[in-house]
C-alpha cells in the first residue's frame, strides 16, 4: 500500500517516537538478520521495564539484558548462538521474570493477535507438562482450558499477543514503510502484524516501484 508520508527517520527518532518505558517489545526477526542496531538504540535511550517477546534472538536479546532494559521475557528457548550468559544469569538471580512457551504456543499467540482473535486453541497434550503447570507473571492467563461449544471437549488455549512495538530488520524497504524480507520466515510476519507499531531497519531504501 502506498502511503504519501515519507516515514524514513533516524534510529534515534524511530525508537524515541515509538518505544516507551514499560512497553511490550517484540524482537521480530527469526534466527537471521537480528535487529541489533534497533536494540542498541533502545539501550542508548535507556528504555526500562520492558516485557520482551522473542522466538529466536541471541545477541540482540543479550544486549538488551546487559543494558538493563528487560523486566520480563516471553520466550520459547534461549539460543546459545552468540552467547546469552547475561540473560541466563539475570534469570537465575530473579532480575528477569520468564514465561516460557513451546514454539507452537508462542506462534499461536502471535497468530491470534495477527488475526484479531482474543485466543487460539492449541494441542492439549501440554496440560501434562511443566509449560502448563509452571507460571510466573502471566499467572492464570498463560493458558486457559475452555469447553468446546460443539463437542463439549476440554480445549487448551493461549491468549492473543499484541505487543506495543515490533522491531525488525529487513533487506530492503521504500520510504513509505513497505518492507521486503528474505530468509527463514518463522514468526516474522505474525510478530509484525500482531503488534500495534512496527519499527523497521533495512539494508537499503529502494524506489517504491521496486517494492
Can you describe this structure?
The protein has 211 residues and is an alpha/beta fold. The protein has one domain: Glutaconate Coenzyme A-transferase. The protein is 27% helix and 25% strand. It has 7 helices and 10 strands. It has helices at 11-18, 36-44, 59-66, 85-92, 103-115, 130-133, 188-194; strands spanning 24-27, 50-54, 70-75, 97-100, 119-122, 144-147, 154-159, 165-173, 179-180, 197-205. The strands form 2 sheets. Strands 1, 2, 3, 4, 8, 9 and 10 form a 7-stranded mixed sheet that branches. Strands 5-7-6 form a 3-stranded antiparallel sheet. Strand 1 (24-27), helix 2 (36-44) and strand 2 form a beta-alpha-beta unit. Helix 3 (59-66) crosses helix 4. The radius of gyration is 18 Å and the shape is globular. The mean pLDDT is 93.
> What is the fold named in CATH at topology level?
Glutaconate Coenzyme A-transferase
Radius of gyration, in angstroms, nearest whole number: 18 Å
How would you characterize the largest beta sheet? 7 strands, mixed
Summing up helix and strand content along with how strands pair, one would put the structural category as alpha/beta
Total number of helices? 7
CATH class: Alpha Beta
The number of distinct β-strands equals 10
Look at the structure and name the CATH superfamily: Glutaconate Coenzyme A-transferase
Helix content: 25-40%
Principal-axis shape equals globular
**CATH-level-2 architecture:** 3-Layer(aba) Sandwich
What is the H/E string? HEHEHEHEHEHEEEEHE
Proportion of beta-strand residues? 25-35%
End-to-end CA span: 10 Å
Number of domains: 1
Amino acid at each position: 500500500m502506498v502511503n504519501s508520508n515519507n516515514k524514513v527517520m533516524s534510529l534515534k527518532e524511530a525508537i524515541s517516537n515509538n518505544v516507551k518505558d514499560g512497553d511490550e517489545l517484540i524482537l521480530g526477526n527469526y534466527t537471521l538478520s537480528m535487529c541489533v542496531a534497533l536494540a542498541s538504540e533502545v539501550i542508548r535511550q535507556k528504555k526500562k521495564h520492558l516485557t520482551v517477546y522473542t522466538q529466536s534472538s541471541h545477541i540482540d536479546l543479550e544486549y538488551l539484558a546487559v543494558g538493563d532494559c528487560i523486566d520480563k521475557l516471553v520466550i520459547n528457548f534461549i539460543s546459545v548462538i552468540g552467547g546469552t550468559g547475561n540473560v541466563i544469569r539475570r534469570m537465575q538471580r530473579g532480575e528477569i521474570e520468564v514465561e516460557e512457551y513451546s514454539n507452537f504456543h508462542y506462534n499461536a499467540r502471535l497468530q491470534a493477535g495477527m488475526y484479531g482473535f482474543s485466543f487460539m486453541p492449541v494441542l492439549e497434550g501440554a496440560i501434562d507438562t511443566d509449560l502448563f503447570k509452571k507460571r510466573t507473571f502471566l499467572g492464570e492467563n498463560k493458558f486457559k482450558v475452555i469447553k468446546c461449544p460443539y463437542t463439549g471437549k476440554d480445549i487448551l488455549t493461549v491468549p492473543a499477543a499484541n505487543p506495543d512495538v515490533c522491531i525488525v530488520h529487513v533487506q530492503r524497504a521504500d520510504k513509505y514503510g513497505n518492507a521486503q524480507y528474505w530468509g527463514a520466515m518463522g514468526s516474522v510476519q505474525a510478530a509484525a502484524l500482531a503488534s500495534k507499531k512496527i519499527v523497521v531497519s533495512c539494508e537499503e531504501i529502494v524506489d517504491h516501484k521496486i517494492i
